[in-house]
Amino acid sequence: MRPALAAPLIAAAGPAGGADLVSARTQMALSLGWHIIVACLGVGMPALLLFTEWRGLRRGDDDYLRLARRWAKAVAVLFAVGAVSGTILSFEMGLLWPGLMGAYGQVIGLPFALEGIAFFLEAIFIGIYLYAWDRLSPRAHLLTGVPVMVAGVASAFFVVSANAWMNQPRGFLLEGGRVTHVSPWAAMFNPATPPQTIHMIVAAFMVSGFATASVYAVALLRGRRDRYHRLGFLVPFTVAGALTPVQIVVGDYTARFLARYQPTKLAAMEGLPRTGPHAPLSVGGIFVGDRLRYAFEIPNGLSLLVGYSPDAVVQGLDRTPSADRPPVTPVHLCFDTMVGIGVLLLLLAAWLAFTWWRRREIPRSRLFLWPAAASGVLAVVAVEAGWVVTEVGRQPWVVYGRLRTADAVNPAPNLWAGLLLLVVVYTVLTVSTVYVLRLMVRARPVAAPQERETA
């Protein structure tokens, strides 16, 4: 069973504990932080790939077909390395966190089982898609890629729903300290599932779009202004840019969800020390003692966001015992990072939309192309920061209100050895993946003659 999306099921930070607890958290954070990048690309890139192939077949367009050929190879590489990192995560769930899996494995087993089915379907059809490119009719070949796209999105949904359960545990009763009356479907479709799954799937498409476009933005900066490179930038950037305002709306929905179901996390995100109306929206700053210092505050901003009124009461950290609070400063700063990057990407998307509306071309200014070239990295940073907010903001709980992270960790000594081994493994994976992808970028793509015919 391989998690197809790096929904960080265990937080990278939490309450102070022994060296092995720190090692386990660090190991899980490294695995999930690495895997989430590959997994996002695995969710979003098949859709970009199928669109370019469909467009090329419909119009008999060689440039679209050349893009599809190249992106197909990248998808294959990313699927392979994602399978490796996902397998590592599967083992880590049991080895590092037996307190979680032993107590609640029967509750959250369903989404992982369904994800396993989705993974095998994805593996089967990605093999067919790559092997049958010149062996099936163009239309039949295009259809073999549809299950790859659907399975990738389904995998994301299943795994993130398991993580959502950890934020809003449902579907069981505790009787005498034992889990009884298990309802796997109620567990999977818990209150946190809609906001988390939508937020993550949209983020995956944004990462895929901006990361792919950033490669071609670099080529445009180097003077490669031919139609192939312009399309390579325009198609994924347009998709990601169109989803950016959607993600901002989803983020607003998620914040109001947190105000109702996880008010302590929202208070940590905003560094809000006290409960009351007229709660400000704070940007920047660090939490020292019992207050947020050096922050820029927007008066009434948080009350307006949560309750659409400056008189809306927002719960602060004072309602939560200090032992049950997450570390505020990293949660707050990561939240600001995520939102700040989202605003920057929205401005870039608006710049492209305005220029295209006026002149039907990509902005030529290097002031646009430089941040566009960095947009892929920025999108990845935003996703990583968002997951720090989600997971560290839940601390000290691994299962919110039910099981503490310190009580779920493997009590065996010397967990640091696994961490060292993991650093070596991911170093090799990173170098190998970057090397292979760079070779693909430098290679000259050529479309098959068959694909130059219209479907």
TrEMBL record:
Residues forming coiled coils: none
Lipid bilayer topology: Multi-pass membrane protein
A Pfam entry, by short name: Cyt_bd_oxida_I
Record's subcellular location: Cell membrane
Principal location listed in the UniProt entry: membrane
InterPro entries named among the record's database cross-references: Cyt-d_ubiquinol_oxidase_su_1 (IPR002585)
An individual GO BP term: aerobic electron transport chain
Record has Cell membrane as a keyword: yes
Transmembrane region(s): 28-51, 71-91, 103-130, 142-166, 198-219, 231-250, 337-356, 368-389, 415-437
Keywords of this entry: Cell membrane, Electron transport, Heme, Iron, Membrane, Metal-binding, Transmembrane, Transmembrane helix, Transport
Gene Ontology cellular component terms for the protein in this record: cytochrome complex; plasma membrane
Single GO molecular function: electron transfer activity
Family: Belongs to the cytochrome ubiquinol oxidase subunit 1 family.
The protein's name in its UniProt record: Cytochrome bd-I ubiquinol oxidase subunit 1 apoprotein
Organism, scientific name: Microbispora rosea
